[in-house]
Design goal:
This protein is 80% helix and 0% strand. With 202 residues, it is mainly alpha-helical. Helix 4 (72-115) crosses helix 5 and helix 7 packs across helix 8.
Length: 202
């Protein structure tokens, strides 16, 4: 009985290890890092990880399906460069729309090559990453792209303004997207099929 209880405790620890690690790191930083435990610092941290959380939504689906995407960081950079480069001509709304469509097309191309052409996702996304790096260089001319319009600063300020303690629009958007994807994966037939595909492609 004692051995069974110990095994159950180990299994529970293994299942929730990421949360246990989070609590341990949070406790350590709160005790020993000066000025760590305050609302401003927590809001700054959440703002910093909001984009990573949004990107993790798509990457989670890819991993659930048993695949890998090496191009995800380059796609983000590509979308950002498109947005900043096209903003003077199209405005932020148009530039963001073009960037989203471009990123979607890259993802669709990766998916077609993996699913239809039967090429390993590691190879496909490695090639995509290399191609996009070249496209970024050509588009930017090898230089950085800066945006100094009042609209750019207004948008940045809006996304960083606190609506509630620990909540900014940037964080709120990420939380909403994560919640929607969680419901989609667990409560819809298509979402559950991703798990089936990752467990058994046949």
């Amino acid at each position: 009985m004692r051995r069974s209880g110990r095994n159950s405790l180990l299994a529970l620890g293994d299942r929730y290890r990421i949360y246990i690690l989070f609590v341990a790191v949070f406790g350590f930083m709160s005790l020993f890092a000066p000025r760590f435990f305050n609302v401003f610092n927590f809001t700054t941290i959440l703002n910093a990880i909001a984009m990573n959380a949004t990107v993790a939504i798509g990457f989670t689906v890819v991993m659930i399906c048993g695949q890998l995407d090496l191009s995800i960081g380059t796609v983000i950079t590509f979308a950002g460069v498109l947005t900043l480069g096209l903003q003077p001509a199209l405005g932020f709304a148009g530039a963001i729309a073009v960037a989203i469509v471009a990123g979607g097309l890259v993802g669709a191309l990766n998916g077609i090559l993996v699913a239809k052409a039967k090429i390993n996702s590691f190879i496909v996304t490695l090639g995509t990453m290399t191609i996009l790096q070249g496209a970024i260089y050509q588009f930017s001319g090898g230089n950085s792209i800066s945006v100094t319009t009042p609209e750019a600063f207004a948008l940045s300020d809006f996304l960083s303004n606190s609506l509630l303690p620990l909540v900014t629009p940037r964080i709120l958007v990420s939380l909403v997207l994560v919640a929607i994807m969680e419901l989609y994966l667990r409560r819809t037939r298509t979402g559950r099929n991703f798990y089936l595909l990752g467990g058994n492609k046949n």
